[in-house]
Amino acid sequence: MPRPLARHRTRRTAHAALARLPRRVRGFRSPREMAALFAAKRAAKFTALRDCCRRCVYCGVSLEPESATLDHVYPRAKGGPDVAGNVVSACAPCNRRKADMLPSEFFLLYPEAGLNFMRYARSAHRALKRGARRAVSLAYAA
């Protein structure tokens, strides 16, 4: 005699598996959440532009909000925080040139960028400016 319970159990397990699916797809954000994220990023960009005198902190070129990019002075790839004292405005070529280099490495390669950084990065943390000053003096001494 066949066991009808086995079919009943498979239906139950299939139903239980369907019940466990998440209601939202992971990684998907609602339009309201996306609008809030874009507004926060736009505000951070305008704040960084204001604090950096609307200039690239590495080459000193004048920036418009559309052409400006945000750069983490101490890179996030190397453990840098995502706070206002670590974010500055930069033009796209300088941001690509810096990539994920530490400030001391970048300013040793491009001492003029360090001089501009000390001049225009008003909101950058004091320790970052101190490191830039040291790297520029070492680059010019060599």
Walk me through what this model shows.
The protein has six helices and two strands. The protein is mostly helical and 142 residues long. The chain has a domain at 54-142: DNA Binding (I), subunit A. It has a two-stranded antiparallel sheet with strand order 1-2. Helix 4 crosses helix 5 (111-120). The chain is elongated and about 65 Å long.
Short note summarizing the structure:
The protein has 142 residues and is mainly alpha-helical.
Annotate the secondary structure layout.
Blueprint: H1 4-19, H2 31-51, E1 68-72, E2 87-91, H3 92-98, H4 103-109, H5 111-120, H6 126-141
Antiparallel strand pairs: 1-2
Helix pairs in contact: 4-5, 4-6, 5-6
What Rg do the Cα atoms give?
Answer: 25 Å
The helix fraction, in percent, is 40-55%
Described by the principal axes of the CA atoms, the overall outline is elongated
CATH topology description of the domain at 54-142: DNA Binding (I), subunit A
CATH architecture designation of the domain at 54-142: Orthogonal Bundle
- Sheet with the most strands, sense and barrel status: 2 strands, antiparallel
Look at the structure and give the mean pLDDT: 84
Supply the number of helical segments. Answer: 6
Roughly what fraction of the amino acids lie in strands?
5-15%
The separation of the N and C termini measures 92 Å
Unreliable residue stretches? none
Q: Report strand order across the widest sheet.
A: 1-2
Q: How many strands appear in the DSSP assignment?
A: 2
Helices and strands: which structural class?
mainly alpha
CATH class of the domain at 54-142: Mainly Alpha
The topology string of helices and strands comes to HHEEHHHH
